[in-house]
Amino acid sequence: MGRRSRVSFARRLTIRTARKLGIATVAVYSDADREALHVKMADEAVRIGPAPSSQSYLVIDRILEAAKTTGADAIHPGYGFLSENSNFAEALKAAGVAFIGPPPVAIEAMGDKITSKKIAASAGVSTVPGHMGLIADAEEAAKISSEIGYPVMIKASAGGGGKGMRIAWNDAEAREGFQSSKNEAKSSFGDDRIFIEKFVTQPRHIEIQVLGDQHGTLLYLGERECSIQRRNQKVIEEAPSPFLDAATRKAMGEQAVALAKAVGYFSAGTVEFIVDGSRKFYFLEMNTRLQVEHPVTELITGLDLVEEMIRVAAGERLRMTQDDVKLTGWAVESRLYAEDPYRSFLPSIGRLTRYQPPLEGKREDGTVVRNDTGVFEGGEISMYYDPMIAKLCTWAPDRLAAIEAMSKALDDFEVDGIGHNLPFLSAVMEHPRFREGRITTAFIAEEFPDGFTGVHPVGNAARRLAAVAAFLNLRQQKRSVLISGALANHPRKVGREWVATLRDFSFALSTREEGGKLTASFDDGVTHTVSSDWLPGRSHATFLVDGVAVGVKTAASGGGWRLRQGGIDEIVHVRSPRVAELAGLMPKKQPPDTSKMLLCPMPGVVTTITVGEGETVEAGQALATVEAMKMENVLRAERRGVVKRVAAQAGESLAVDELIIEFE
Prior knowledge:
Layout: E1 4-7, H1 12-20, E2 24-30, H2 37-41, E3 44-49, H3 60-70, E4 74-76, H4 86-95, E5 98-99, H5 104-111, H6 113-122, E6 130-131, H7 138-148, E7 152-160, E8 163-168, H8 171-189, E9 194-198, E10 204-212, E11 218-230, E12 233-239, H9 246-262, E13 267-275, E14 281-287, H10 294-301, H11 305-313, E15 330-337, E16 339-340, E17 346-347, E18 350-351, E19 354-356, E20 361-362, E21 368-373, E22 380-381, E23 388-396, H12 399-411, E24 414-416, H13 422-430, H14 432-435, H15 443-447, H16 459-487, E25 497-502, E26 505-514, E27 517-522, E28 527-532, E29 540-545, E30 548-557, E31 560-565, E32 568-575, H17 577-583, E33 597-599, E34 604-609, E35 616-617, E36 622-628, E37 631-636, E38 641-646, E39 653-654, E40 659-663
Parallel strand pairs: 1-2, 1-4, 2-3, 4-5
Antiparallel strand pairs: 6-9, 7-8, 7-9, 10-11, 10-13, 11-12, 12-15, 13-14, 15-23, 16-17, 18-22, 19-24, 20-21, 21-23, 25-26, 25-32, 26-27, 27-28, 28-29, 29-30, 30-31, 31-32, 33-40, 34-36, 34-39, 35-38, 36-37, 38-40
């Protein structure tokens, strides 16, 4: 292949594969990423500019200069930034540097969604009805949308990753969605062209992985189901799909290969489809790059797609035929995002005060855990890039086993210091509809219509949590007894009668310990047994609750215990009966009144303020726009009111909960 291969942002697995092949690596980084994991892992690292991607990762000349300075002879572009930029691929070719990806002509053809739809139709690929021409303004967008028939999807022609996409159900939403999509597209891709197509209701998002060499061989490597999405951004992926049958899989695969051949494609790529309830499928787009969710394909095929991309770029032939491609078992991927699920999934930034992923590799039960990440404990999550910080994957012989393995792995994943979506991911894994495979791209909107408020323990789940807290309390009390015994002639004894309270539950229970196992007997006769190697100060442990292993994150909190497991995040207090009685008489602290304030919901940059002091606003009216992590968020009035003070201005960077507008 050559002496070196450059690795882009957060591509830890690219470096791992390059090392396996004996290729030295060079990382490029912006000021925001100077301590990033890929920088630490690479053999060399080169700074290419300030934090904003438009001044660093998107500047082709700086990357070419880094390649020239280090003597790199090949570049792997990773997932984003310039990975689907034909000008970048052409510039590398002119500079004599190999691009580990497809040919520029394929990138250009498939990177423009309008052009790609036309090519797909010509290649015999099923496509969604829509308007592929350029759209002048919001009024024309509304007219075209009405003619197609609502609902419609307004999309950026050069888009990807859920950026520059809006669903419109009427003319007003079409006008507003058109402008928002243009703004996001220009910010993310430097291309604000927009097109509109029919939105298929109750759709499933299923994509085909293709792989080709420079000698005309093209294969499909099965499918991935990516229907669990929020704001058009994938959250959970799996391979294969629980919905497809063999005939549909073959038809989709063959159409994906036909499209790839039509543009002279080679390297790894993905052809995405929308599939309706009767398994009719329609071409959505082609991603001419390695997908974020590629590990699930690797887990069921046994292939290393990065290695195949490198070999193809070096001119080698594929070492397999279509008949050699076998799908074995099931794999699930959960995307860990730096976002607060309790605040409408708004982006979160800050320092990772704790970041301990589950152990990778094969487990005793035969399942496999894999974690692809670009961060580390003590590192900073900035506001400049995508909020995804890890991709947690599990493999098992069948789907339910893979889901169970994912649930356990999520319980073993420790993240603190920022808002994150681990509880939400756990909630999806435990959801009956997900487990049954009855999913569409509307799953999150339908099952969590009011947002995510956490998983609230009920019935036996609450009792088991109380029993775990009683175990922690016993261990803590015994340690205190040992310390007091060393300091006094009359050490105190640990009581047996306790009251455990959490949320709306209050359980009277008695405890008995024998052989390191706690038996918690509740006042209605129910008992639970708990054992663990947990010791005070540990933030995570595996507990055997009635013989079932459960991973629980633990932390002392306000005289109680904060316990997190399976999406549950609760404070449990274990008190003596008298202390519990007195605690019940304490008044509850009331939250501050912010009803007359518009607060910044996330750290970000204010891009527009659309109202002025003294102006009367109506419910639903747009007040301001905040951009964070490449997403544009429009803030609206909750009710009619009069603006008393505008505290922020366009271009200003704000912290979470910082005042933007105050009302009379």
